[in-house]
Amino acid sequence: QPVESGGGLVQPGRSLRLSCVVSGLNFDMYAMHWVRQVPGKGLEWVAGISWNSEKKAYGDSVRGRFTISRDNAKQSLYLQMNSLRADDTALYFCAKERMMGFGETHFDSWGQGTLVTVSS
Amino acid sequence: SYVLTQPSSVSVAPGQTARFTCGGDNLGGKSVHWYQQKPGQAPVVVVFDDSDRPSGIPARFSGSKSGSTATLIISEVEAGDEADYFCQVWDRSFDQWVFGGGTKLTVL
Q1: A93 contacts in B (CB within 8 Å)?
Q2: How much is the pLDDT for A101?
Q3: Least CB-CB distance to A112: which of B42, B45, B86?
Q4: A45: contact with B, CB 8 A cutoff
């Protein structure tokens, strides 16, 4: 199961890097994603990355500000968040796509999330 | 970008059937996945690829799709089914995963 970390309180305009460690499976066989949720609201897909990092994609609201990456040797996924805004405040989940392909199937394993609060 | 439309709430009595709809343009060409999220927990997939059920999900959960609408059905609803339900698709045109706004199930 994925375990996220790196969340916290950050001022608008600053940066934050989230991490997600996945154990118990061959991490390098699966596409991975970040999904966020404002407490009490819906799910918003943030970004995804293919198993070999060749394909990356971003949601409209974060494109150009956030960067997704992974280190298969460390079984880890990352999200570098720059130019943070108040509306980036949310619980950020790390999620594994069921198969190797990007966009091929559903997310079958989720972490419990790490909370990011953007406020002065 | 692609939009999935879900009603905000559904209410049913225990033992009855709950139906959740998810609408989107050209939905017929996309695979629809459904997630259940209980308060304070991460989402869990209950139906994938329109109508398949993961192992461990009760047979009371089923899915279908017709035209531009996908439907999640929970038969013999129990109090423990009370949760938010989200639909999801992959929008190949924009290379984006899209979630519906979610439907809150209240068991009366």
Answers
A1: 42-43
A2: 80
A3: B42
A4: yes
The residue of A33, A41, A43 whose CB has the most chain B CBs within 10 angstroms, and thus the best one to mutate to test that interface, is A43
Whether the per-residue pLDDT at A104 is higher than 90: the answer is no
Distances, alpha carbon A14 to alpha carbons A10, A53, A65, A82, B28, in Å: 7, 26, 11, 6, 42
Residues in chain A: 120
Binary contact (B43, A43; C-beta < 8 A) = yes
What residues of chain B, 1 to 20, have a C-beta less than 8 Å from chain A? 1
Which amino acid makes up residue B88? Q
| Other Cβ atoms closer than 10 A to B57 | 17
Q: At a CB cut-off of 8 Å and minimum separation 6, what does A110 contact?
A: A1, A2, A35, A93, A94, A95, A96, B42, B43, B44
In the three-class reduction of DSSP (H, G, I as helix; E, B as strand; rest coil), residue A43 is classed as strand
Q: B82, B105 in Cβ contact below 8 A?
A: yes
Per-residue pLDDT tens digits for B55-86: 999 999 999 999 999 999 999 999 999 999 99
Can you tell me the distance from the alpha carbon of B73 to that of B16, in angstroms, rounded to the nearest whole number? 11
Model confidence over A14-25: pLDDT tens digits? Answer: 999 999 999 988
C-alpha–C-alpha distance, residues B1 and B8, integer Å:
21
For chain B, the straight-line distance linking the first and the last C-alpha, in angstroms and rounded, comes to 36
B90–A60 C-beta distance less than 8 A: no
Instruction: Please give the mean pLDDT across all residues of chain B.
Output: 96
